[in-house]
Specification:
Blueprint lengths: L6 E3 L2 H23 L2 E5 L6 H9 L8 E5 L1 E3 L10 H8 L9 E3 L7 H12 L6 E4 L22 E5 L2 H9 L12 E5 L1 H5 L3 E6 L5 H9 L17 E6 L9
Parallel strand pairs: 1-10, 2-3, 2-6, 3-5, 6-9, 9-10
Antiparallel strand pairs: 4-8, 7-8
Helix pairs in contact: 1-2
Length: about 250
């Protein structure tokens, strides 16, 4: 993806529909060509419409799909409204026929052991499609700046910076800032970049500065999502608000 290769549409609904349709197409192509597909699903407010569009496509054979996800808070119960496992179960997994495998991050398990378990699994399943977003601080998954671009471990334990935690609180997932966990298990930047196709969806004015920083600056771990500039097959969907600070 060059800094010019992005699509700007009217609003979150429009970019969610477009990204969901592209993801569905790539998943069906992988199933047709190889008999199965390996996908990474993201969570958060940026993914509502994308997941809805995926669910609307009745031609996807979900029994051929292995699903992974990007990140999860450490120590947060699955019953908490901010749990990404809860998010995916309620908004996606419960609405599709049986997936071939569902590989969720257990944030209540020992973090080191969980990273090792998931890392071994994902290395056996080269990813066809990765869905993701960009955080207000430019993070990719929970790889906050300065992100670790060097590690080749598929999953890592990360410390969440204040800007990231403020975003989670501001989106209404937690009652107070003190409730927002300070650590998470995240898919690494290296692992995300191994995906054959990356589909990144970014809505909202509050993401505009991060979008500008990640698209118009050189690649830097201070703007983690800038690494997407180097991916050979990355589709970036922005609504007008998120694209509002771009020079072109």
């Amino acid at each position: 993806m060059s800094t010019k290769q992005y699509t700007v549409l009217e609003d979150a609904a429009a970019i969610g529909e477009a990204s969901g349709k592209e993801a569905a197409l790539k998943i069906k192509e992988a199933v047709t060509q190889r008999g199965n597909a390996n996908v990474i699903l993201a969570t958060g407010t940026s993914q509502f419409e994308t997941l809805q569009q995926l669910l609307a496509d009745k031609e996807i054979d979900w029994s051929c799909v292995n699903m992974f996800h990007l990140d999860e808070y450490i120590g947060l119960p699955i019953t908490h409204k901010a749990s990404f496992r809860k998010y995916l179960i309620e908004r996606f997994i419960n609405h599709v026929p049986q997936l071939k495998t569902t590989n969720l991050i257990d944030g209540e398990a020992d973090p080191v052991s969980e990273c090792a378990r998931l890392g071994a699994l994902i290395l056996q399943h080269p990813i066809d499609v990765c869905l993701c977003g960009i955080g207000e601080n430019g993070h990719l998954a929970f790889n906050d700046p300065p992100a670790n671009f060097e590690t080749t471990s598929p999953y890592i334990v990360v410390n969440l910076d204040e800007a990231c935690r403020r975003q989670q609180f501001g989106e209404g997932w937690f009652n107070t800032m003190d409730d927002v966990p300070k650590q998470a298990i995240s898919m690494s930047v290296h692992q995300i970049m191994q995906s054959a196709h990356i589909i990144c969806t970014v809505p909202d004015t509050r993401k505009a500065q991060a979008v500008k920083d990640c698209l118009e600056n050189p690649v830097s771990n201070l703007h983690p999502a800038s690494i997407l500039q180097q991916h050979p097959s990355c589709s970036l969907y922005l609504d007008k608000a998120a694209a509002s600070l771009l020079a072109v």
